[in-house]
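User: Hello! I'm new to structural biology and keep hearing that structure can be predicted from sequence alone. Could you demonstrate with Endonuclease/exonuclease/phosphatase family metal-dependent hydrolase? Please show me the input and the output so I can see what each looks like.

Assistant: Of course. The first part below is the input, the amino acid sequence of Endonuclease/exonuclease/phosphatase family metal-dependent hydrolase. The second part is the output, the predicted structure written as tokens.
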Amino acid sequence: MNNMKNRLKLIGKILVSIILVFALIIGSYVIYVYAQYHRLPNDMKQTIKNPQTQQVELGQTYKMMTFNIGYGSYPPSFNFFMDGGDDVRAYSKSAVKSAIQEDIRLINKEKPDFGNIQEIDWQGDRSQQVNEPQVVRAGLPDYTSVLTQNYDSAYLFYPVTKPIGKAKSGIMTYSKYEIESSTRYKLPIETNFNKFFDLDRAFSVSILPIKNSDKKFVIFNTHLSAFITDQKIQKQQLLTLFDEMKKYVSKGDYVICGADYNHALAGKAHPELTWMKEFPTENLTKGMRVVAPTNAPTVRSLDYAYDKKNPKNTFGIIDGFLVSNNIKDLKIQTIDNQFKSSDHQPVVMDFSLEK
């Protein structure tokens, strides 16, 4: 009888010890995540790489592209766990490099004068630690560029069986013409635990001088939050962006924002999804308008592998441009490549700065 009691006591002690060890591990991890969390300050000057000297001119026709490259990790077969799929990290380093090279090929084929990229990683477990800005810059040697951080996460042990890990990511603006300055501004994000999955959202404002003019050509770039449930935060992000645009529109500058808005710019909205609600045009800065393609979708859902005939796949138009009224849009289209390298497709617009 005593032996049985002793065994039960021993088993009890072992179980308590195991529980305490797990509690210590979990507690230590929570402390680590909170300790690692930080947001960059507002109004940060950005570094301009490979500066150019040629200046934009009024009355000339230019082309601009905006493209969420999905950090090179979303081929057509990919279905992402945050959307209800199974995949977490990119399949391999070679798969990421291949996707980024396909993006570069698309850009060089279209030959845009200006471009915005979203979801470009440089220290990402999810993208197999490929330095994507370095690869893109090497593939676009004739462009000046600005890289702006908008995501910096601690190691996220989620999902537990296949953790997405640690990542640094951002947005990039590139140009064949002189960029005289670029600034990073913070966007509002959720303040609850969700902030650890939506870190440090931001937008960049790049200022380009116009030859023989005191006005400026101003390029905004951003990637608004996708997986937040607080619609007040979504609205605040847009209003913050619109308020900054107003400063330049009121001065008569020429303003374009090329972005992934995670709102439907054209076509059918999907209010049941956090990332395809209707875009609030009624709140848009006075003197600005939406210019979006209608020839093909710009995004696919990631709950299933890509199949345009599968009714379970959701498609929409959430990438495009906000344009000031002194800019004439001549043509806009989605480059339909069947989502070969990303869950998004690039959008290109021909335009001119009116005299």
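User: So the tokens describe the shape?

Assistant: Right, they're a compact way of writing down the 3D structure. Reading them back into a model, for example: The CA atoms of residues 304 and 312 lie 8 Å apart.
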